[in-house]
Structure formats: C-alpha cells, structure tokens
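Write out this protein's structure.
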Amino acid sequence: MLTAEQGGRGSAQMNAKAMFVLAASVGLIVAAIPIYAHHSFDAEYDRNKPLTVTGTVTKVEWTNPHARIYVDVKDESGKVVNWDFELGPPNGLMRRGWTRNSLKQGHVVTVNGFHSKTEPHIGNARSVKLSDGRQVFAGSSFDVGPTQ
C-alpha cells in the first residue's frame, strides 16, 4: 500500500515529465517557425518570366532575411515606376563581394532577375550591374551561379 508521501512523489515526478514533454514540444514548434515562414523561390517568383530593367536606385535595405533594393524605372510610356527587388541575405552578399556601400541612392543600375507571380513591380534579382560597370550576383534563391 502507498503512503500519502509516496503518492505525492510519484505525482511530482509525473508532473516533471509532463512539463518536460510540453517544453520540448513547444521548442520544436518554435524552431520550425522560421523554416515554415521562409519561402521558396517558386512560391513567389516565376522562373519563366525573366526581366532586365535599368534605373536609378531610390532605396537600399540591408536587412535579414533578404536585402532589398528599390529602383525607379521608366516604363514604355515614360512613366516612372518604382521596382522592389529581393536580394540574398546580407551575409551572402558580402561573400559575393558586396559591401554596404556597393549601392547608394542615385546610382544607375541594371538588374537581371525574375518577375513576381502576383505583383507587377516586384522581382527577385539574380545579378546587378553597378554604376562602375561591375556585375555582382545578387544571391537570389534561384541563383545557381553566374549567368551565361
């Protein structure tokens, strides 16, 4: 027969195990959120719709998980449209030769990349030709190396 003291210990051990299982479950769920939140190239961009635009940099965001550049481009009618291009992560860009000073507001650049599946003036940049003539790869999630 169990005494009240023994039953209390067993209950405390059971509660500790339950708390451990609960904490481990929550930890796994929280760890999976960034993986779930991060998108694949094919989820947002159309690899069958390449684009090349030339324009003036209006803004550079050097942030995780993706750096972004905004470029004013004249469309066919002469109207200026602001394009939003996703780049790779800042760390990846630095490994490809970028610095925070590679692009500045007012630089004229040519961006090669791919159209968004849903937004008319959003793209994923594959390469950016800088105002000094250098071409740097943008660390796109599509990118498999230099373009031919």
